[in-house]
Amino acid sequence: MSTDNRLQNGSCVACLNPTDTVLGIEGEAEWHIAFLTNLNIPGNEAGATVSAGTGNPPGMVPNGRYASLYRVCTNCAESASPNFPKPVLSLLGVDAPTLHQP
Ligand SMILES: [Zn+2]
Question: Ligand 1 centroid to 82 CA: how many Å?
Fold first, then answer.
């Protein structure tokens, strides 16, 4: 049940500290998992997070490209990669910066 903590509203997906900022990810499931592993989340947990976050049983991920928002604090995004956009406050109607799969 460890993945449940990562999906709680208000917690950074990587460090689990409270945060109100998000980043968007758009691409295949592998792209979402790569984003999470860049945040130093172990690969198996990253896969489980993607499965749970898309309503799939563990080990199952969506086919094809899709978009999701991930709650990430600025510190984790900055330390993960200089290529990551700066996370923004997750206000309704605000488009979050999104990393698109090439
Ligand atoms: Zn964080």
Answer: 15
pTM of the model: 0.85
- The number of beta carbons lying within 10 Å of the beta carbon of residue 33 is 22
Summarize pLDDT for 13-69 with one digit per residue, the tens.
999 999 999 999 999 999 999 999 999 999 999 999 999 999 999 999 999 999 999
CA distance 41 to 44: 8
Do residues 25 and 80 make contact, with C-beta atoms less than 8 angstroms apart?
no
| Alpha-carbon gap, residue 33 to 69, rounded angstroms | 13
- Of 51, 43, 41, the C-alpha closest to 16 is 41
- Radius of gyration of the chain, Cα coordinates, nearest whole angstrom: 12
What separation in Å is there between the alpha carbon of 88 and the centre of ligand 1? 13
Distance 17 CA to ligand 1 centre (A): 6
Measured in angstroms, how far is the CA atom of residue 12 from the centroid of ligand 1? 5
